[in-house]
Specification:
Blueprint (H helix, E strand, L loop, with lengths): L2 H5 L17 H10 L21 E3 L5 E4 L2 H4 L8 H7 L2 H8 L12 H9 L8 E4 L3 H21 L7 H6 L12 E5 L8 H6 L17 E2 L12 H21 L4 E6 L2 E2 L5 E2 L2 H14 L2 E5 L25 E4 L7 E4 L20 H16 L2 H22 L5 E4 L8 E3 L3 H13 L2 E2 L1 E3 L3 E3 L8 H17 L1
Parallel strand pairs: 2-14, 4-5, 4-6, 6-9, 9-10
Antiparallel strand pairs: 1-2, 3-11, 7-8, 10-11, 12-13, 13-16, 15-16
C-alpha cells in the first residue's frame, strides 16, 4: 500500500467538474458575500476544506480538482492529513493556541523541545533558528540579522554603541541608522513588505506605490534547455552574471551588507541557479565580506527531491542564513554562526517571536517527510512526470518551451508562446479538473504535495494532453 493510500483511503480516484464555469454559481455567490468584508478579487473559487482530501481540493460547487498548486506550494502532505490532525489535537498545541505566549519574555517550558523537533530538519551546516510569521517576515528578519552582524563586525562584537550612534538612530540618520544595501536578483520574489519589497523584482503589482530602498538587482542566469546539451553556453551565462554581481557589490554607492537569492526563482518564472553559480556566490560573499542568504521559502521542505534545494549545490562553507516558510507551515531563518545573535537583547524581538503552534506543525511535517521518505518519493515521481512531459514536448514543441526541472522532484515548469495561451491553458485545466498555477509572464509551474504519486501524474498528463490538443 502506498503512502497516499495509507494517509487517504477515501481520496477520489479522479477529478470531477460539473459546473460549466469556474468559479461556479455557488462559489460566485459565496465570493460575493466575502467581497463585502474582504478583498476576494484574487480568488479562483471558494474552497470546501472539510471535503478536500489528500491531493484533491473541492470547491463550494462540489467540483473536485487534482491539486498541483497546493495553496501556492504551501501544503506539504495533502489536505486533512491524519498525522497533522493528531499533532493539532495534542496538549502542547492546545496550550500554544489558547495561551499564545510572548516567547521572548515568557517562553513556554516546552519551547526547547518544540524547536529541537524543528531543528532536526534544518539544512546541513545550520544549527540554530529564529522564528517568524511568514515568508516575507522571515526575509525581513534575516535582513535585520545581516545588518546587525555586518555592523557588529565593523564595530567589534563586544563593543558598546557610541553616544553618537544612540542619538543619530533616533533621527533616522547615520551612523546610528547606517546606509546599507541588500543585493538581490532581477525577477526575484522575496515578499511584499517594505525591505522584502525592495529585493522583489518579479511583477510591478507586487510593489507599486511602496517606498523602496536604493538597493541593487543583479541578473539571474537565463539558461538554455535542456541543460545537458548547453553546458558551455550556460557556464558562460553563469560567469557573465557573476561578474555583474561582483561589479555591483564593489561599485554600489552604499555598502552591500547581504546578498539574497532563491536557488530556483519561483514567482519570477522557475529560473534555476546552477551548482557552480551558487558556490561561486559563496566564494564572492566571503571575499567581499557580504552575508549570504538563501531564500528557501518556496523551494524548501522536499519539493525538489531534497529537503532543501540548495543542498544540491553542496555549498561550502555553508551559507549564513536560510529562510523558510510555506510547506513548513511555520517561518523563520536557520543559521549557525553565534555572532548572528545580536549583541544585546530586544534587538531581534517582537511580542510573539514567531508562532509555537505553527512550529509544532512544522516539526510534525518534517517527521512525516523523513519517516515516510517523501522527499525520495518526490524525486522518483518527479522523474516519472518529467519523462511524461518530455514526451508531450516532442509532440507539441511550441506548447512546452524550456521544459525545466529535470532531477528536481516535482518542481517542474515550462513556457507557452504567450501569456494569453498560458492563461487559456490554466483555465481549461481547471475546467477539466486540474488546479495548476502559473508564474512570470507565460510559465506554467507544478507544485503538488509530497504525497503526489505516479497515479496522480498519469491523471494530470492525460488531462493536459487533451487540453493542449484543444488550444
Amino acid at each position: 500500500m502506498s503512502v497516499c493510500e495509507k494517509y487517504y483511503p477515501s481520496e477520489p480516484s479522479k477529478p470531477s467538474v460539473t459546473s460549466s464555469s469556474i468559479p461556479g454559481p455557488k462559489s460566485q455567490e459565496e465570493l460575493s458575500k466575502l467581497g463585502k468584508v474582504f478583498d476576494a478579487r484574487p480568488a479562483y473559487f471558494m474552497a470546501d476544506y472539510e471535503k478536500s482530501v489528500g491531493n484533491y481540493i473541492v470547491d463550494a460547487d462540489g467540483n473536485t480538482y487534482l491539486d498541483l498548486y497546493a495553496q501556492i506550494a504551501s501544503i506539504a502532505l495533502g489536505y486533512n492529513n491524519p498525522a497533522l490532525i493528531k499533532a493539532a489535537q495534542s496538549p502542547e498545541m492546545i496550550r500554544a493556541l489558547v495561551d499564545r505566549p510572548a516567547l521572548g519574555n515568557f517562553p513556554s517550558k516546552d519551547l526547547t523541545a518544540i524547536l529541537e523537533k524543528l531543528l532536526k530538519f534544518a539544512p546541513k551546516g545550520q544549527s540554530m533558528v529564529w522564528s517568524g510569521l511568514s515568508g516575507a517576515d522571515a526575509n525581513e528578519l534575516a535582513f535585520k540579522a545581516a545588518f546587525m552582524y555586518y555592523r557588529s563586525k565593523q564595530r567589534g562584537y563586544d563593543k558598546e554603541f557610541s553616544a553618537e550612534e544612540n542619538s543619530t538612530v533616533m533621527e533616522n540618520s547615520t551612523p546610528g541608522s547606517p546606509q546599507l544595501a541588500v543585493l538581490s536578483f532581477k525577477k526575484a520574489f522575496h515578499g511584499r513588505l517594505f525591505a522584502s519589497g525592495s529585493v522583489t523584482c518579479s511583477k510591478p503589482i507586487h510593489k507599486l506605490d511602496f517606498p523602496a530602498f536604493n538597493w541593487p538587482h543583479a541578473e539571474y542566469p537565463a539558461y538554455k534547455f535542456p541543460l545537458e546539451q548547453n553546458e558551455d553556453a550556460n557556464r558562460a551565462e553563469d560567469d557573465r552574471c557573476l561578474k555583474i554581481v561582483e561589479d555591483l557589490i564593489t561599485s554600489w554607492p552604499i555598502p552591500v551588507a547581504a546578498l539574497i537569492i532563491e536557488p530556483i526563482q519561483s514567482e519570477g518564472g522557475d529560473n534555476h541557479a546552477s551548482k557552480y553559480f551558487l558556490q561561486s556566490l559563496r566564494d564572492l560573499t566571503l571575499k567581499l565580506g557580504v552575508v549570504y542568504i538563501i531564500d528557501e521559502v518556496q523551494t524548501g521542505v522536499g519539493a525538489t527531491g531534497k529537503l532543501w534545494c540548495h543542498e544540491y549545490a553542496e555549498i561550502q562553507p555553508p551559507v549564513d542564513l536560510v529562510t523558510f516558510s510555506k510547506k513548513f507551515q511555520s517561518a523563520g531563518y536557520f543559521f549557525h554562526d553565534p555572532h548572528f545573535v545580536p549583541n544585546k537583547p530586544y534587538r531581534q524581538f517582537n511580542t510573539w517571536c514567531g508562532e509555537p503552534a505553527r512550529m509544532i506543525i512544522a516539526g510534525a511535517i518534517g517527521q512525516e517527510i523523513v519517516d515516510k521518505k517523501l522527499a525520495e518519493q518526490c524525486a522518483r515521481v518527479g522523474d516519472y512526470l518529467f519523462g511524461k512531459l518530455s514526451a508531450l514536448q516532442e509532440k507539441y514543441p511550441t506548447k512546452f518551451q524550456n521544459l525545466r526541472g529535470k532531477n528536481r522532484g516535482t518542481f517542474i515548469a515550462w513556457d507557452l508562446p504567450s501569456g494569453a495561451e498560458r492563461d487559456a491553458l490554466l483555465k481549461n485545466l481547471k475546467l477539466n479538473g486540474c488546479n495548476v498555477g502559473g508564474c512570470a509572464e507565460k510559465s506554467v509551474r507544478l507544485r503538488p504535495t509530497l504525497t503526489f504519486e505516479e497515479k496522480h501524474a498519469d491523471i494530470f498528463v492525460d488531462v493536459l494532453s487533451k487540453v493542449v490538443a484543444e488550444i
